[in-house]
């Protein structure tokens, strides 16, 4: 598979504090890549750097083109969409209005409607609640809406930050299945940041382990899941 996203020697500082140091990773076309690690490891900082939301040193290339100096809206138009933790929905707008806002880069009305129908096929609960205010949805429904809104711009790379956070197991499993469908049926590559390591390892092709701003392990998901250090430190299995 061809390289879609390349991150080389990425460094990020917040007010003098080091968030990421020398991070290098690769996402190939059609892959699901999980990023795992403890709180404060730099996972969200990595996504924010790729999205153009924070300044960084190093290099980020997408489709062979540097993202340096581009603002977030330009990066979205190139095909990279960041679905942040807890979604950041517009609570006083309806489900459908939130979804339609996600298509701000798409000009073709028919294309927007087709994508909207595809989102409703992916998450039928949203179709049932299309006229309901987003702020009245359950936690699982809000997460589905956040992912659905991210899909409306038809990205080539979708970055999900903690999509299973706070969800009951049945809803967590529904999100995992949606990620599989997004890769298989939509042809979208995914970067998944997850605190639930079982989810992250289950759905990914490859995994990067971040700790204290550095990549400390990387490899195919099945190999990472069998690494004795990972099993003891991150999975609590000896």
In short:
Helix content is 38%, strand content 27%. The protein is of the alpha/beta class and 238 residues long.
Layout of secondary structure:
Layout: E1 3-14, E2 17-28, E3 32-36, H1 43-50, E4 57-62, E5 65-66, H2 72-78, E6 80-83, H3 95-101, H4 109-122, H5 124-128, H6 139-151, E7 157-161, H7 169-186, E8 189-193, H8 197-203, E9 206-211, E10 214-220, H9 221-226, H10 228-233
Parallel strand pairs: 3-8, 3-9, 6-7, 7-8
Antiparallel strand pairs: 1-2, 1-4, 4-5, 9-10
Could you walk me through the main structural features you see in this protein, from its secondary elements to its overall organization?
There is one protein chain. The protein has 10 helices and 10 strands. By secondary structure, the protein is an alpha/beta fold. A 6-stranded mixed beta sheet has the order 6-7-8-3-9-10, sandwiched between helices. A hairpin with a 2-residue loop joins strand 4 (57-62) and strand 5.
Q: Can you give the mean pLDDT? A: 93
How does the major sheet shape up? 6 strands, mixed
User: Helix/strand/pairing class, anyone?
Assistant: alpha/beta
CATH homologous superfamily placement: P-loop containing nucleotide triphosphate hydrolases
What order do the SSEs take from the amino end to the carboxyl end, as H and E? EEEHEEHEHHHHEHEHEEHH
Shape: globular
CATH architecture: 3-Layer(aba) Sandwich
For this structure, the CATH topology is: Rossmann fold
Number of domains: 1
The total strand number stands at 10
End-to-end Cα distance, whole Å, is: 35 Å
Poorly predicted regions are none
Strand arrangement, largest sheet?
A: 6-7-8-3-9-10
Radius of gyration: 17 Å
